[in-house]
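Can you give me the bound-state structure? Components:
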Amino acid sequence: MIELRNLTKRFGSFTAVDGLTMTIGTGEFFGLLGPNGAGKTTTISMMSTVLLPTAGEILLDGVRLDRKASAQKRKLSVITQEYSMRQDMTMDEVMEYQGRLYFMPRKAIREKTDALLSFAGLIEYRHRTVRHLSGGMKRKLMICRALMIEPEILLLDEPTAGMDALSRRQMWNLLRQVKGQGVTIVLTTHYIEEAQALCGRVALINRGKLQKLDAPDALIRELGPFAVDETGADGLVSRYFHSREEAIAHLSAASSDAALRATTLEDVFVDCAGRKL
Amino acid sequence: MGIITVLWEKWVEFRRDFFKITVAAMISPLMYLIIFGLGIQTTSHGEPYLNFLIPGIVAMATMTGSFGAIAQSMSVQRLYERALDQIMVSPTPLWQFILGQIIGGSLRGLYAAGVILVLTAPIRTGLTFNALSFLIMFLNGTVFATIALVLSFLAKSYTDAPRFTSYIIMPMSFLCNTFFSTDQMPAGFRQVIALLPLSQASAMIRAISGGQRPGAFGFAVLAAYLAVFGGIAVGFIYRKKNL
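Here's the bound-state model for the whole set.
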């Protein structure tokens, strides 16, 4: 279980994360959503101890997480937004380095590297240096590296950024498999449909503050599961209704180009961000 | 265990860039030896100037080799590649990471010094380099690898590393007992220069090369630098909020 208690991060006078408090259960697939600059990456960076909080704390299974907490850090694996790898190492070396950093035996490192690189379709490029890989291959390598150590908690910061639609779907399937093994996954993403497809619960944060926290379906129900889009003088405007009857009644009275559809998590996100920004 | 991992990483780097590292270790010292030692042939303290110069160049090579191995690499890893994040997240104790970097950097300095000794071996100088000389070279390397680590943690951009070389390494190369004895320097300035690590490393290696025993003061100065900068490096990696 991960507990964030009043987690705060300031950079000078700018507050990136402001008193964030939430609990993420063991085995949960949890999404952190928010507009650019909301504090998602800063939160993930604090959860991986790359950044230290200005105030508040993070507990992993009841134990405070800091840079000295080797036993707690052993449970964690991170896929950062940037390609945080030695650019001059080959794929094999990147994987071996990771295995060594987590004290894995050499034989296990070799076996796991073979299995993961094969699974990701990277095995034939294993002797290629990172700087000579495409963006998608680097992203896959980061995933292989993160899974190398069989983590209990996987922190994913925009893991599908820059991936094409097919690769993204493959990644979703992979993450579902990982989740099926009981791994706790914390995901930040710009792709709202990704969070809706994968996450059991999502936290909407804006300007470092928690705005909403619930299951995607519950957040949609709260806003209203029926949406009517109509084009007005201010452009496309969506209205949300709690019953189909209400939505149809509004649609009947609206202009001819109005349309009824199901509300999505993206509507919740836009509604929340739009009101707060 | 973490120390071995860092040394393995340094070995991977060294194996891949062996040629570049070796050439880089040779060029500047070789120029100094040719220009000051062989081109401008003179004597110092009644002996051929080369006998004075070679121990200084060897000490300088450990400094530049160790500093260069860490400063550039760590700055790029921390600020550009973000590869340091991988270390921060891992369970490898961070003090072991620091110690591995210091030892790895120092070994690179020792290699650079070894290259100079091989290059100057054909010149019959009669200078002595024994196990104690190599210990001093290693110690000097640890000092400058540690300074490089601290500076790379302070760097705001990865282009800062060459600036550190200009501000620290270049002045020390010329002022600290490498090319001329600091005995003739003005009082006050001479004492300050004597407290710099390269001055002591040069003096000790030179003393051994001439058949004398190095003073304990030199070891104390190097150990003090190592302790202070090592402490700062460990403090940074555990406590710096925005590493």
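A couple of observations. The first helix of chain A runs from residue 40 to 47. Chain A touches chain B through 34 residues (CB under 8 Å).
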